[in-house]
Hints:
This protein is an alpha+beta fold. The protein is about 35% helix and about 35% strand. Strand 1 and strand 2 form a beta hairpin.
Amino acid sequence: MPDLESGQISDPLTQTSQRTPRTTQSTVAPTRAVELVSTQGKTTIADSVVAKIVGIAAREVEGVHDLVTSGAGAAISGLATRMTGGDQRAQGVNVEVGEREAAVDLNIVVDYGVSIPQVAEAVRRNIISRVAAMTGLVVKEVNVAVTDLYFPQDQALQQQPQPPRVQ
C-alpha cells in the first residue's frame, strides 16, 4: 500500500518498502513495479512495461527511424538482446518511475532531412500522451538524444549485390 507522505511503496515481490523513484534500463528485466491501489484492488505496472510503451510511442512518430542503445555497456547488452531474440521495443529507452510520475531518456536515429527539433517535440508529445493514457502516470520529462542520422540511399547501396572481387 502506498505511503504518500514518505514516498514509499510496498514491493509486491518481497513485501518490503522501497524508496521510489528507481531507474530501469530497458535491457534489464525489472523486479519492481508501480502499484496503483483502489478500493476494489491493486494494479501493478512493471517499469519494463512503461519502457515498452515509450519505445513504441517514439517509433510511431514520423521521422524517427529507430531507437538505439548508447555507450559500450548498452551496445553489448543490445547485441545480446538481438542474438537471443529478446524484445527490442524498449531498446534505447531508460525510464525512472515513481508512484505517480515518470521520467524518460531515449536515444533515437532520425531520417535525414527532417526537422530534428520538430521530431523531438512530436516524440515528447506522443510519449506523454501514450504513457498517461495507458498507465495513468504523469510524465515529468522526456529527454531525447538524437545519436545518428539515417540516409535511405545508404540502405539502397547495401542492398545492391556486390560484384565478385575475382573472376
